[in-house]
Write a structure and sequence with these properties.
alpha/beta; five-stranded parallel beta sheet; 5 strands; about 10% strand
Length: about 220
Amino acid sequence: MYKRILLLGDSQTQRGGVPHGWVNLLANQYCRQLDITNRGLSGYNTRWTVERLRDIVPAVPAYHYDLAVVWFGCNDAVVKGVTAQHVPQQEYSRNLTQIVWKLVECVGIQPNNLLVLTPPCVDEVMLKEAFPDSRTNEIMREYADLALIVARDRGCESADLFSLFSKHAPEGLFTDGLHLSKRGHELVAEVVTRFLSHRVAETLPIPDWKDCNES
């Protein structure tokens, strides 16, 4: 009947549930076609996610998921020593691979139905006030490249948000240099919508009221 999608990530995913957020935009667009589960974990990196995977995605999931979006890296890429969130690049790649493996092998999501989003660029000027010395675009680019490699090696779909956000940077994509503005959320929603466009049928599982017979 209704397809199910699991969204797994950090605060960029959790905050997607705000009224103008990318998850909420998808929920409104696909409310008659798709059940969405938001497992955004604000502040989390891939290490802490892997440690709690059995709680996030049990060995016998309560629901069958057809699709997934995985979005980590913004916290892993914190400059070492600034916060405990930093995860070295090799470990980030290994952890992200394990997360994808869990969703494919244990949950049963086909690799081509799993979308890996890279961390976006940041606004380094805005970051100086909100999160001083925490992230640089040079480092964020490196983690974005690793996410693309993991997706390629596992046969998953991917979207390079670092390049996309860099291209649209003048549009004001952040509220604090890291977290997304209304326009930033719209960009992510557009990317995920393209991923879903050939995977979610336009036909409504339950017909429109105009197609119902009169009693």
